[in-house]
Amino acid sequence: MTLAEASTAPAAAAAAAPPEDAAPPRRKSWFRRLLRDKAAVAAMTVLGIIIFGAIFAPLLATHDPYVNSRSVMTPPVWQAGGEAEHLLGTDGQGRDIFSRILYGSRLTLLIGLVSVGIGGFIGSMIGLLSAFYTRLDAWLMRLMDMMLSFPAILLGLALVAVMGQGAVPVIIALAVSSIPDCARISRGIAVGVMKMEFIEAGRAVGLSDRDLFRKYLLRNCISSIMIFISLRFGQVILIGAALSFLGLGARPPMAELGMMASQGRDYLLFAPHIAVIPSVVIFIIVLCANVAGDALRDVLDPRLQA
Amino acid sequence: MTDPTDAPLLEVRDLQVHFDTEGGTFRAVDGVSFSVRRGATLGIVGESGCGKSVTSLGVMRLIPRPPGRYAGGEVLFEGKDILKLSENEMRKLRGGRMGMIFQEPMTSLNPVYTIGDQIIESLRAHGWKDKAKARARAIEMLDLVRLPSPETRVDDFPHQLSGGQRQRVMIALALANDPELLIADEPTTALDVTIQAQILELMRDLRERTGSAIVLITHDLGVVAETCDDVVVMYAGKVVEKAPVADLFASAQHPYTLGLMAAVPRLDARTDRLETIPGSVPPPYLQLPGCRFAGRCPLATDHCRSAPPPLKEIGPGRAVACWRAPIEEAAA
């Protein structure tokens, strides 16, 4: 025994040395590591530009997004017949598309972020709680099944009937419809984590349920849940657009990307840019959110750094 | 090695832990009794599924309920029945006066916190308010379990450590609050042999330094011989034999214990095949009228198959549950 101890002691010391040298790179802040991921940097830059544009829309817009002009259905500048005055052309009513995109992404991002934030928070809490307190599991999950059977569109319709048209009923409908999906996904993740031995070890150390839930369960699930939420963000923007298309979301003169795309549908054959440009912006937002979410997970999750 | 204080630190009396499953009630622990003296090491041996891990979780009151439940018995810690404590009182005991080491060092540490944070957290759950002092204590504990350069490694995440190092961290975690009782559930099973020896040496050394009693759960008779004072042999949820370690190895009385010992390969005799005990453990939901080992026992009689043998005292600290005991040497 002592022989084994003695003979392995120098080996252990030698083994301990390399990690010491390797220590500086792995102790870099998560932000520095994030910057090494080219795709993530690109995605977040684009997302940053769109968010910047949305916030400072009144300063950046070249035209009033609600005022019609004589030049109707002007194509973007790079196409034949494009005018330098309207960078991305004009829509069927002669409104400047560039300005409407800036204002439109305001509402789209707001609807997406708020509804996914509320729905994701409530949903993942329900999922985590039903994994943590197995007694609640069946009850909460059957409740989620009930909510899942209720389509977002129908809920939106009912809410608009009660509250009138606007962004708020859409946000509520989208948030509520995000809850069961988030709950089921996060429950699935959490059930897996609850089976890990360290949960039992945490109990054996005498931690309270609160600490165990927060530090052992939540912290081990949060990165996977965040990925799901960032994917859900894209879905919600699309459903929001569908609701706008049905006349349930933003009221027509207001600019909203989904609504702009659906209005452009009427001119798809002779002025495709009216529908394509807002759709491309939606596509870019969703894509960048997913890439950025993925990169954040890679950086924040210590288990992936082995 | 141990001072014979009369009052045992831990006394388990007729503990019954059952699991309600769809196939019926599974009596994982069926009337187990043993006691642990202060500063002594008790080994619980038996093959996989004999209920030894459930017993250890039962003592810590960590049985998941449902499906598990305590169907009877008492677990006396310093004379107080911990099965009657409130969850709050129990939480103070866990990690405080009772520590536990788990079998799987690879998965028993929270992967998203540094090892230092985990030790600090355990300290803070038991009354250490000052964070700087708790951190100093964490480093001291890591040093105690001989983790190299504890001042820097305290900020490592579990995935940066090897299996043996993680088990050292688990031991540091379990010992952080100076427990009087340490329950080690197969602490060396997942480690390779040289590391096993180091960990056992470490545990022996720590017991002498801290004076805590240890319950060591294992299926390795070699580990028992090296570290334990007393041994409890379990089979299919029941205690079949209890003895001081020297007596057990000198003259085991239960055919199951003898079978286990015969199955250990010997260095001084060349064998082509390892000994085995024929048959397998009866399925847990099966309610047998007689001795549960009767189906595999070379000495079984009709009486063995019809009536369960009681655990009877056969000497100081010795007891055996067998109708045929005491067994003459020839039987082995």
TrEMBL record, chain A:
Residues 1-25 are annotated as: Disordered. The chain crosses the membrane at residues 38-61, 107-133, 153-177, 225-250, 270-293. Its main location: membrane. Residues 105-293 form the ABC transmembrane type-1 domain. GO terms for cellular component: plasma membrane. SUPFAM superfamilies: MetI-like. It is a multi-pass membrane protein. It is found in: Cell membrane. GO terms for biological process: transmembrane transport. Pfam families: BPD_transp_1, OppC_N. Keywords: Cell membrane, Membrane, Transmembrane, Transmembrane helix, Transport. Residues 1-20 have a biased composition (Low complexity). Gene3D superfamilies: MetI-like. Belongs to the binding-protein-dependent transport system permease family. This is Peptide/nickel transport system permease protein. It comes from Albimonas pacifica.
From TrEMBL, chain B:
The keyword ATP-binding applies. Its main location: membrane. One of its GO terms (molecular function) is ATP hydrolysis activity. One of its GO terms (cellular component) is plasma membrane. It is a peripheral membrane protein. InterPro entries: AAA+_ATPase, ABC_Ni/Peptide_Import, ABC_transporter-like_ATP-bd, ABC_transporter-like_CS, Oligopep_ABC_C, P-loop_NTPase. SUPFAM superfamilies: P-loop containing nucleoside triphosphate hydrolases (SSF52540). Transmembrane segments: none annotated. It comes from the Bacteria. One of its GO terms (biological process) is peptide transport. Residues 12-261 form the ABC transporter domain. Keywords: ATP-binding, Cell membrane, Membrane, Nucleotide-binding, Transport. It is found in: Cell inner membrane. PROSITE patterns: ABC_TRANSPORTER_1, ABC_TRANSPORTER_2. PANTHER family: DIPEPTIDE TRANSPORT ATP-BINDING PROTEIN DPPD, OLIGOPEPTIDE TRANSPORT ATP-BINDING PROTEIN APPD. Belongs to the ABC transporter superfamily. This is Peptide/nickel transport system ATP-binding protein/oligopeptide transport system ATP-binding protein. It comes from Albimonas pacifica.
